[in-house]
Description:
The protein has 172 residues and is an alpha/beta fold. The protein is elongated, with a radius of gyration of 32 Å. The longest helix is centred in the N-terminal third of the chain and has 17 residues, at 20-36. α3 (97-110) runs parallel beside α4 (127-138). Helices cover 35% and strands 26% of the residues.
Amino acid sequence: MRRRLNRRRLMQEPADINITAFMNLMVILVPFLLITAVFTRITVLELNLPAAAEHELNIQEPRFDLEIIVRDNSIAVGNRSGGLLSSFPRENGEFDYEQLSLLLQQIKARFPEKLDATLLLESDTSYDTLVQVMDRVRVAQVVQAGSVQSAELFPEISIGDAPLTNTRMAGK
Length: 172
């Protein structure tokens, strides 16, 4: 009989839960995860769609519309209405981004009020090439008074598809 009473009493008493080991794990795990977490910085570039062709009846002076066309084998810089200004071929698998930056600085010196540019890309243009060209179009690294500073060039970038070349038209 006594055994039955002891069993009942043992079963009726709430069991103590030992959470010490779990708390020790959390005390170590939370700081470790916070220290090793990678905090990413997301940079957002504002882009505009190219404006639709506007037909103006009173054209007083020719406008300069900067247009950069990135193709697989070259980067062409030109005026939408005036034609090609310069072209930079791909050499040894790389574009000459420094020469592109120098040309864009010269254009900015001639048209200081100009803030927008249109970037036209072929469909198979790599993301790295897109970012490299956009960086060169937005800002230039110039040396002033012995220090390197960023100079704003054309921060308002519109992105579109490059016009098809004759060889691409024949392929499609």
